[in-house]
Amino acid sequence: MIAKIAIPLVLGLSIFLTGMKVMELALHQWAGPYLSGLLERFTKTPLRGMLVSTVITAGLQSSSAVTVITIGLVNAGLLTFPKTLGIILGTNIGTCFTTELIGLNLSRWSFPLLIGSGFVWLSSFLIPSTASMRARRRMRWLHAIRCLSLATGGFASVMLGVEVMQSIAPHLQSRGLFAWLVEQSQRSLLWGVIAGAAVTAVIHSSAATIAIAMGLASVQAISVELGIAIVLGANVGTCVTALLASIGGSESGRFVAWTHILLNVGGAILFLPLLPWLHQASVWLADEPSSQIARAQTIFNIVCSLLALPFCYLPIFKTGKPAS
Known about the structure:
The protein has 16 helices and no strands. With 324 residues, it is mainly α. The radius of gyration is 21 Å and the shape is globular. It has one domain (2-313).
């Protein structure tokens, strides 16, 4: 059991999370200096905030990173709570980009992509630097190339981690663990939601939890419907990161975290009875089980954000903070 399940699971999850962190840090290093200015400038209305946050989250490949940065800006007094409403909605939409990429089943390209990005990154250090103006411009380009090559290597590691984690599925099936979970989920898909929330709360990565569900569904270890229930739970579990980031901060910073929690928990409660319809919609949009789970997450996050958007324009949110 240790050799066939525990070690591959830990190894695959470690590769996945390392890749996510490398990708996040590299992209943040590249675009980070402009991030605060973008959020402050383009959040005059909730709709604009949502659109900009969607693009930034998709670019940084981390909704948690954008949420934590937003809480930090609010705690520092650079953003007011009403301006964060659209940002929170956008992070939920932008995070779908990661799972959509995973759903493309690019794992066969992961190792060549990792080798190629590493070669580009190392080659960038062979270019000599001088103090001239032209050299400084060249160094900015080199900085961008290094960051983007690291981000590409991080993404390749994510794909490689998914492939390693998928290898444990047959052994899990033989142990009967997922047979028990599938049996329980036939009585209530709430079991899948609980499992997704618990795993995400522990590893602090909804993308990793969803990737595991997609991998298991691709080899028919679990049903697509159960995988979608895990997706709902993963969205709930990711709130833990925002809640931890708000500890010790300002009242407005805590409001940001609780808004994130309200959006994700409320969305899960809303969609839980609608899981069969969400499953059917994903079947219409994709053929592969893993892609169906990715489409379901995209539908879920977009619909939840669009349903919540009109509430961001209520007069109560124009005073700088919500009423107590």
